[in-house]
Amino acid sequence: MKNYAFTINGKSISTEKTFDVKNPATGDLIGSASMSNKDHVSQAVAAAKAAQPSWAAKSDEERKSTVNKVADILAENTAYLAKWITEEQGKPMAGPGSMFEMQACVGWTQVPASLDLPVEAIFEDDTRKDELHRKPVGVIGAIAPWNWPLMIAIWQIIPAIRAGNTVVLKPSEYTTIGTLEMVRLINTVLPPGVLNTVSGGGDIGASLVEHKDVDKIMFTGSASTARRIIESSKGNMARLTLECGGNDAAIILPGTDMKSKAEDLFWGAFINMGQTCACAKRLYVHENDYDAVVEVLSDLASKMPMGNGMEDGIVLGPIQNKMQFDKVNDLVKDAKSKGAEVICGGSPLGGPGYFYPITLLGNVDNGHRIVDEEQFGPVLPIIKYKIVEEAIQKANDTKTGLGGSVWGDDLDQAAKVASKIQAGTVWINQHGAIHPMVPFGGIKDSGYGVEFGIEGLKAVTRPQVISIKKPVLV
Description:
GO molecular function: oxidoreductase activity, acting on the aldehyde or oxo group of donors, NAD or NADP as acceptor
Active site: 243
CATH class of the largest domain: Alpha Beta
Strand order of the largest sheet: 15-16-17-14-13-19-20
InterPro entries: Ald_DH/histidinol_DH (IPR016161), Ald_DH_C (IPR016163), Ald_DH_CS_CYS (IPR016160), Ald_DH_CS_GLU (IPR029510), Ald_DH_N (IPR016162), Aldehyde_DH_dom (IPR015590), LUC3-like (IPR044086)
Number of helices: 15
Keywords: Oxidoreductase
Domain Aldehyde dehydrogenase: 15-465
């Protein structure tokens, strides 16, 4: 079984100590990854620190050109990397799956390459002129998750290097190989040290976060881990961008015709088997519309083929790992014990792989764990409401605030309701519709900082004001 290496200073590093990576659809061993240690973390950070001044000294046009070459590498290797995503993460090749993820990797590389951060004249009068310049932060430590392993890594890597920073990336131990391979390929067009990887478990991530020469940390994952990062980074005063998931609410306004919107809502909830931070994870439906909504969603669920994502025609794969599988199963069991109605699904499918069916639950409400906790899986609780203000109040009754959505035929009414939802992004008649030009980030326990677009590019820079005193005219 091949041992896949991590990259430090442009060189592939293999170690005798490795860890296994398995296919969540079959349980088969698909490879092993070299295990980094604390010395490797220090070497990677040192390489990034040494490479950063010369990388930052390159012109904007040079860095843009190089990032566009990265996009070309990703496009040329889409099929190869998509196969790794499916084998490691479980999402199918087809539909909104691995090929979709790789297309997003290319797009989220090309867009930052097209953006500029020009010098801003922020104040000027007869006596002075003040300019705001954007400088790279330095060395960025990035920790990527297992749900969209390559796409989210690209979200962290590309704005950082576009702005003149260098990066040390640790992928999730559940989905390591595809990310290591992507970085190996990217390094064929980058100067040594600009992009480095280390691999392993939480101890390696902690070593990276705590390192004295890391200037900024970018993290996507749980709020509990984010809190540990906040605590651990106090020694280096690293800047932070934290995206910590959410428990997004979707509200369907009374009388809304859902026939034309149902498929968008379905994928808003169940893309990547619900293993997406900004999925719809709670659905609030007026009591008069409940039966119609349940019927259309359960009908869609019955038509979506689930299985090994390497097989033709599959659009839904497994849950990625046993920890998450057990959490989803526990939450559904708890809901059933509290009297929840199982509209469809509700029990593991059995056999090899972590397969759990699309599950719709009724007769639930705020206060039930399945509603209050982020399930991060293929389960959607559907909650009845009597008046819209009740739905808004219940939607906001959460510690998280990443996204939300409002569904309605009257767009003005929907916009008024959307403005009352406490979330970083609220979509209307869509959910999770992120875009590389549109800032994305959360509030409350969903973290802080934004990614994407100009604001995301600014987030990987530090401002510097140049203040010029004008000569006195005699």
